[in-house]
Amino acid sequence: MRDPFMQAAVDEAYQGLSEGGIPIGSVLVHEGKIIGRGHNMRMQSGNPLLHGEMSAFQDAGRQPASVYRGCVLYTTLSPCPMCSGTALLYKIPRIVIAENVTFLGAEDWLRHCGVELQVLKDQECIQLMQDFIAAHPVLWNEDIAE
Questions:
Q1: Global confidence as pTM
Q2: Separation in Å, CA 132 to CA 81, 135, 141
Q3: In 3D, which of 102, 20, 92, 17 has the Cα closest to residue 54?
Q4: Are 88 and 110 in contact (CB under 8 A)?
Q5: Whole-number Å distance between alpha carbons of 57 and 87
Q6: How many whole angstroms separate alpha carbon 10 and alpha carbon 98?
Q7: pLDDT digit string, tens, across residues 106-145
Q8: Per-residue pLDDT, 143
Q9: Catalytic residue positions, numbered
Q10: Which end of the chain is more exposed for a tag (fewer CB within 10 A), N or C?
């Protein structure tokens, strides 16, 4: 059984896919409660910054630094350098990653900066991204600036 917070991130990924976007979802959790949720909205909004994690931060709105320092970020895909940098900026201490097989983000940088990472190797998320990349390679390469 999947952790309910990771399930919420996966649900966000499927929401993004249903909107014609890239299936990556994320939730920001503080003290056992989701305070921000989001999915990659680059295609839907035309905004290159709205990766799944960035959408979750935006949804959380302004928070005191003490809140961010107590958060866990759940994401369906290994965070890119932009999303990793945002997590570092706000001193997010822990990130739970569904998969890093289809894309290995800035995990070494995060670990070097003291962020605890948990990589789940979630097979459903791996398959979801592999299927999306195979069907939409141009969109995927645009998303990761290839």
A1: 0.96
A2: 21, 5, 11
A3: 92
A4: yes
A5: 9
A6: 9
A7: 999 999 999 999 999 999 999 999 999 999 998 888 777 6
A8: 72
A9: 53
A10: N
